[in-house]
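Structure ticket #2291
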Amino acid sequence: NENENIANNTSENNTVETNSNGEEDYFTSSKLQRENMYSQMLETYQKILENTAIPETQKSISSQEIANINNKKNAIMIAENLIKTKGFEDAVVSIGEDSVDVVLNYEELSSSDRAQIEDIVTRKTGYSVSQLVISKMQTTES
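Resolution: structure written out below.
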């Protein structure tokens, strides 16, 4: 999709502070890429709304897409902040078409922690537990 290509190209031009093991880089760059993608999409839909030559039906679809993106961004921000309050300093939530991915930095994930994360993410995104994938960030040992 053209919007994702624009967002990916934009994100490559940004520098990210890293720590020695690369964990901060992963979480920071993932959030930056996600924000760039949403910004590009919003900008595209906003241009459609401002274009007088575009039919009202298309503008209506663009308005709905803007609302959908803002709802996703809000759900992600709230979910990540709530996950952080549960003791997971680093978390990236990504909402796809049919699933939600949560990448965390943890040594071990207890069933209680998993249940709390599932509860947070399903409540904030509207997706079911079966659509939720919780992953541990993969680290590369040197």
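Closing remark: The two ends are 36 Å apart (CA to CA).
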